């Protein structure tokens, strides 16, 4: 047994070091992300302005001297920073849950069709020009379509009161293919403007994040993150195998259903407001697992922090890498995650001697 999983002093030290490092990185990246941009704001001014808002009547801190900078900080940059933290934490946690349920470090939320379904829902609204909910029309359609795709995957893969993991994965592949065909259909019949919107949405971006969007996604994120932490101990038991987990009192089918529902809610909410951002749910849990081992009681909260740090850092690069340009954040995560996935694939095959 891994000494980290057994709670040895070395394992506890690794856990403390990891959480401390992630916490410090999170604070520094948040301050840096809020300060950096085409209109520069000092790090000290950012920290003082945030401190002033947090402490309220205590009178600590102070607003930025430039009223325009103060407004830009609170109306544009901080909502985007907050959205990057939520989306990153949600995607990484969904990935950790997915890998725990499937028992495979190569699994990620897109396997169950949530990303493809959300993309199709958004594309239908964009092409048809529906605007029944104003600025929330596209995110709402994407959220509902992503949930629907996951429910279809679960319904089609269930037989005799049970859901087999292999059947679930293969059904997800089929649903992804159908959603991809629908997306191509929308792009073929849509106008050039609609096509451009669909392509940009598929690449993922946090541009245009507002506090209203943050408050809309926050309840779904909170439910998913808290639920994932509550499932951590049972996921550790599930790692022993279905039969052993049942003997230890785990309702395996209920655990899988609950996990899939939480994954669907979190991933659909994240994708609805940010577009498709790949590889966060794959890379972060695996990197955390390499540091602290497979125990989900540490893996899940560490993945939350790691995902938030990764996406916030990627968003800084997206905003500042090219002057007066905002790169699609999904492109950046794919550029890093793709080579990592290839390395992970080769490494897994080398250790296992091939796929079973």
Report on the structure:
The protein has a single domain (81-349), classed as ABC transporter involved in vitamin B12 uptake, BtuC (Orthogonal Bundle), CATH 1.10.3470. It contains 13 helices and two strands, in the order αααααββαααααααα. It has helices spanning 9-35, 43-55, 67-102, 114-128, 137-157, 165-189, 192-203, 211-238, 242-247, 252-274, 280-292, 296-320, 329-352, and strands at 158-159, 162-163. A two-stranded antiparallel ribbon has the order 1-2. The two termini are 23 Å apart.
In short:
The protein is mostly helical. 75% of the residues lie in helices and 1% in strands.
What distance lies between the first and last C-alpha atoms, to the nearest angstrom?
Answer: 23 Å
Element-by-element helix/strand order: HHHHHEEHHHHHHHH
Radius of gyration: 21 Å
> How many beta-strand runs?
2
Question: What's the name of the CATH homologous superfamily?
Answer: ABC transporter involved in vitamin B12 uptake, BtuC
Mean pLDDT: 86
| CATH architectural type | Orthogonal Bundle
Structural class: mainly alpha
Helix % is over 70%
Subcellular location: Cell membrane
Membrane topology: Multi-pass membrane protein
Transmembrane segments: 12-36, 81-98, 110-130, 136-156, 168-191, 211-232, 260-286, 298-318, 325-345
GO molecular function, one term: transmembrane transporter activity
């Amino acid at each position: 047994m891994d000494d980290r999983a057994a709670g040895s002093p070395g394992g506890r030290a690794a856990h403390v070091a990891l959480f401390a490092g992630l916490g410090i990185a999170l604070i520094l990246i948040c301050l840096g992300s809020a300060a950096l941009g085409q209109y520069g704001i000092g790090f000290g001014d950012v920290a003082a302005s945030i401190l002033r808002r947090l402490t309220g009547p205590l009178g600590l801190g102070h607003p930025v001297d430039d009223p325009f900078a103060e407004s830009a900080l609170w109306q544009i940059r901080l909502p985007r920073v907050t959205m990057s933290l939520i989306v990153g934490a949600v995607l990484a946690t969904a990935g950790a849950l997915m890998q725990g349920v499937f028992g495979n470090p190569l699994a990620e939320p897109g396997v169950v069709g949530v990303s493809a379904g959300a993309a199709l829902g958004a594309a239908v609204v964009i092409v048809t020009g529906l605007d029944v909910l104003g600025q929330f029309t596209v995110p709402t359609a994407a959220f509902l379509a992503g949930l629907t795709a996951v429910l279809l995957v679960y319904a089609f893969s269930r037989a005799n009161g049970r859901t087999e993991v292999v059947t679930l994965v293969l059904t997800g592949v089929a649903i992804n293919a159908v959603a991809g065909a629908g997306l191509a259909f929308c792009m073929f019949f849509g106008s050039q403007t609609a096509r451009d919107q669909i392509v940009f949405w598929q690449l993922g971006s946090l541009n245009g994040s507002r506090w209203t969007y943050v408050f809309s996604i926050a309840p779904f994120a909170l439910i998913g993150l808290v639920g994932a932490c509550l499932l951590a101990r049972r996921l550790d038991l599930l790692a022993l195998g279905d039969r052993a987990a049942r003997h230890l009192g785990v309702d395996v089918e209920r655990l899988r259903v609950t996990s899939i529902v939480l994954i669907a809610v979190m991933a659909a909410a994240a994708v609805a407001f940010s577009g498709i951002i790949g590889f966060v749910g794959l890379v972060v849990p695996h990197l955390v697992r390499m540091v602290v081992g497979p125990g989900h009681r540490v893996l899940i909260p560490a993945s939350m922090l790691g995902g938030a740090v990764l996406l916030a850092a990627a968003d800084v690069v997206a905003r500042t890498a090219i002057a007066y340009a905002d790169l699609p954040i999904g492109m950046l995560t794919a550029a890093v995650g793709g080579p990592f996935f290839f390395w992970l694939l080769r490494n897994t095959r080398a250790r296992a001697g091939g796929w079973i």
